[in-house]
Amino acid sequence: MDERQKLMEQIMAYDFCMIDLGLFLDTHPADANALNDFRTCYMESEKLRKQFEEKYGPINQRFLPNPRCWQWIDDPWPWAREA
User: Fold this and answer.
1) Where in the chain are the domains?
2) Which label site among 47, 62, 74, 83 has the fewest CB atoms less than 10 Å from its CB?
3) What's the CA dihedral at 25, 31, 35, 37 to 10 degrees?
4) Predicted TM-score (pTM) above 0.85
5) For the segment 14-31, what is each residue's pLDDT rounded down to a tens digit?
6) How is 35-81 classified by DSSP, letter by letter?
7) What span, in angstroms and rounded, lies between the C-alpha atoms of 44 and 17?
8) What gap in Å lies between CA 78 and CA 56, rounded to an integer?
9) In sequence order, what are the residues at sequence separation of 6 or more whose Cβ sits closer than 8 angstroms to the Cβ of residue 7?
């Protein structure tokens, strides 16, 4: 597995964790441990996203490295695997 794929899988794992914890927090909003875990997953996901985007380009449209040019489709899609 190359570094790009490894980073993407780590981001997806943290994002999945955030979705799961978000659903739990919908019914247990005062659970301090779950809220702390959610924050931890969020911070790790953001750190990994920044790493990925600095090396490989945008993961989604919220990253705009050049405000004068739309670069979203300049590179292969983040989930596209080389054949």
Assistant:
1) 3-56
2) 83
3) -100
4) no
5) 999 999 999 999 999 999
6) HHHHHHHHHHHHHHHHHHHHHH--SSTT--S-TTS--TTSS--TTPP
7) 11
8) 8
9) 48, 51, 52, 55, 56
